[in-house]
Amino acid sequence: MRALVRPPSDAYARCLRTDAARVIDVASAREQHAAYCEILRRACAVEVVALAPEPDLPDACFVEDTAVVVGRRVVITRPGAPSRRPETASVERAMPAMYDVRRIERGFIDGGDVLVSGGVAYVGLSSRTDEEGVRQLGRSLEVEVRPVKVRGLHLKSDVTPIGERRLVMRRGAFDAFAGHDIIETDEPLGANVLWVRDRAIVSAAAPKTAELLREAGLEVHVVDVSEFHAGDAGLTCLSVLL
Questions:
Q1: What is the pLDDT of residues 66-118, one digit of tens each?
Q2: Is the pLDDT score of 174 beyond 90?
Q3: How far apart are CA 8 and CA 57, in angstroms?
Q4: DSSP string computed for 25-37
Q5: Which one of 37, 44, 61, 237 is the catalytic residue?
């Protein structure tokens, strides 16, 4: 398994975020990103492939939003924020030759709005993903697509997979996942968990969620990503798993 990542550039201090007055420490963000990559390497036995930082693209470290991967098919997205659309070109160039790469040409979609579980792609209708983007994704992936209305930034801000048909979700966030085993958390930053090789990577900002997952029998690793939370992001935002 590979994880495609991109370290934050100095421009990250100007990233899109709900609290524009919140100061981002880019040096700390780089240290946190390196620690995140080290957990992927050491704890999850993942090959980490780092793209070059983008000095003119503040949000480019959030690579998840640029690509959706299902099996050997990759769909290059069309991000909802116009300033983010140039991020996709370098991600597409980095895709290994064995992947079938498609592109979203109409509508808008962010990868953070796409959760694949049980052979279904659940896609958040959010401020960054519209109905046309959802339709285009369905045609590109050739799997069943189920839209989910999102109140927050992205679908995976509030729910993420932690195994086959198993999810961690912010309590009461959605009722769209019938047939799934759901672990609910009350921590605002606890529902975005990165599941890699049967291991759960959890934000240090969600200690109760980490304990819930340990009690459920999961191997849990904790990492501080506070500087990325400042940019409205979570753990899944920082990588594309191949």
A1: 999 999 999 999 999 999 999 999 999 999 999 999 999 999 999 999 999 99
A2: yes
A3: 9
A4: -HHHHHHHHHHHH
A5: 237
Q: Starting from the edge strand earliest in sequence, which strands make up the sheet with 240-241, in order?
A: 47-50, 2-5, 240-241
Instruction: List beta partners, residue 209.
Output: none
Which range among 8-12, 107-111, 139-143, 229-233 shows the weakest confidence by mean pLDDT? 139-143
237 is catalytic: yes
Say whether 154 is catalytic.
yes
**N-terminal to C-terminal alpha carbon distance within the chain:** 6
> Which residues on adjacent β-strands are paired with residue 124?
148
Q: pLDDT, tens digit, for every residue of 154-170?
A: 999 999 999 999 999 99
Question: Class for domain 2-241, per CATH?
Answer: alpha beta
Half-sphere exposure of 4 (CA within 13 A, CB side): 23
Q: Residue 100 is encoded by which pair of tokens?
A: 């079938």
Catalytic residue among 33, 154, 180, 229: 154
